[in-house]
């Protein structure tokens, strides 16, 4: 080798060493939160998840949950360590098949892999655990709901930490495989496609589900207990799975008269929101929830919604979320109006469809319901704060904001906006500001004042959208749907924590 070649090689080697040293020094811990002002510890930085494989065993008699979650992810920076959101007691963690050190505190599982992880690296993270979920609290709250015959992993804004480790924020969606083994005779319901059961030699049965489209962690759920499970096919060919607790008592028939109409409701909503975005449909009714939640593909309802008879309005609301909230998720939790305002407006649309009151009539009555001095008008749907994230104003004033847009731009542009939004933001996350920009683009109107009035200004607006002022006596008859929508919203707004 010539001296010149040796010098060149030496220079290249030195440069490489400097580059490696620079890379090594740049490696940092992933952030313990994703940066959401409402929930600073929600989610984590440094990686993105593509898939969760959750394989569990659950014993209803003692509330013991055990098993393994395998996470497929990719690092987004050079990492020395990273966090998972998890409240249960882990027994082991492996990263890319190597045993990793870990600590747990305050709902955070801090993982120290063996060696730094390079940006762009594929990660296989395996967490094994066993615990009693109902005994675990994060910030004084327990999301896991133990019932007389099983348990419910259902809540918003988070439930994942009580049954699987995750990057627990809507901005990091993933696909899911969920399989849960339970004693024979116990049923398990989860999201997506039902992939059947498998008998085990120990007198247990394993139930398997697969979610093929991106799903936020809080929308992943399990309901375990005694259920009647009904399977059918929707008119569009998608599988439908509904499940009804055997403990519904007198509410059983009204619940079935509502939930069994899910494919009809979805078919109607497609006219306004565009094609249904997921691989399956259905619903679950179980005591012990206290609210309804739009779990992806399979919304879950407390029987209280059906105490006064069939209630298709809550079915319209939760399935409206399949577009607004599930397919298009919030970028930050302050964008909650994009979920609740439009799901509530789905009820107004359903009311028009079934001839029980127009959207205009429901908007006027909602506006008239709250006096100008009511604290209701002090909560801002566009940024309600974590304590008021599920306040009634987010639902009711949120729906009024949607109707105000419809009145301002006309039906043609309004429904074009909704369909373009759900198509262009499909399976992603978005902000209120992005929605406003699309509405202005489609309509050709400047809409800042409209949204400022209905979403971001305290106090009762001078007039209902498209209707009378609060100083004017309204002569419109009460819509037949109004009392049921009001009762539904009161229950829906009660699930905050």
From TrEMBL:
GO terms for molecular function: alanyl aminopeptidase activity; metallopeptidase activity; zinc ion binding. Its EC number is 3.4.11.2. Residues 260-454 form the Peptidase M1 membrane alanine aminopeptidase domain. GO terms for biological process: proteolysis. Its cofactor is Zn(2+). It catalyses: Release of an N-terminal amino acid, Xaa-|-Yaa- from a peptide, amide or arylamide. Xaa is preferably Ala, but may be most amino acids including Pro (slow action). When a terminal hydrophobic residue is followed by a prolyl residue, the two may be released as an intact Xaa-Pro dipeptide. Residues 1-26 form the signal peptide. Keywords: Aminopeptidase, Hydrolase, Metal-binding, Metalloprotease, Protease, Signal, Zinc. It comes from the Bacteria. Residues 50-219 form the Aminopeptidase N-like N-terminal domain. InterPro entries: Aminopeptidase_N-like_N, Aminopeptidase_N-like_N_sf, Peptidase_M1, Peptidase_M1_aminopeptidases, Peptidase_M1_dom, Peptidase_M4/M1_CTD_sf. Belongs to the peptidase M1 family. This is Aminopeptidase N.
